[in-house]
Amino acid sequence: MNFERLVESAIREAQERGDFDNLKGKGKPIDLTAYFETPEDLRMAYSLLKNAGMVSAEVDLLGEIAMLEEKLSTTYEEKDRSRIQKMIREKQMQFNILMERQKRQRREK
């Protein structure tokens, strides 16, 4: 039995068991916007990192910024709000620097 038939058989058996019945996004089109917006030379690396449960520094910073903004929305003490706003500005600056480096690297190629 060749590899292709083996894979098809395994998929068919999984379908019959109902392994694919409750998948996230079932019946909805796959949104590939982010994939095609990623520069072609980085797509494979980002896909590998994502599948390994790791994210790029840019994505990590965006996540941190979002968490800080959420925290800011529930913080009422002015001293704490100032501290969180400062952290947000610092993370945004780091993000902007990373993005600018990427742009320069792409122009140089």
Fold and architecture overview:
The radius of gyration is 21 Å and the shape is flat. The protein starts with a helix and ends with a helix. It is mostly helical and 109 residues long. The mean pLDDT is 87. The protein has one domain. The chain is built from 5 helices and no strands.
Helices and strands in order, then pairings?
Layout: H1 3-17, H2 33-37, H3 40-51, H4 57-73, H5 78-108
Helix pairs in contact: 4-5
Task: Write out key terms for the chains shown.
single chain; mainly alpha; about 110 residues
Give the ordered list of helices and strands.
HHHHH
Mean pLDDT: 87
Strand-residue fraction? under 5%
Derived structural class: mainly alpha
Low-confidence stretches: none
> What's the number of structural domains?
1
What is the β-strand count? 0
Rg for CA atoms: 21 Å
Q: What's the helical proportion of residues?
A: over 70%
The major pleated sheet works out as: none
Summarize the structure.
With 109 residues, the protein is mainly α.
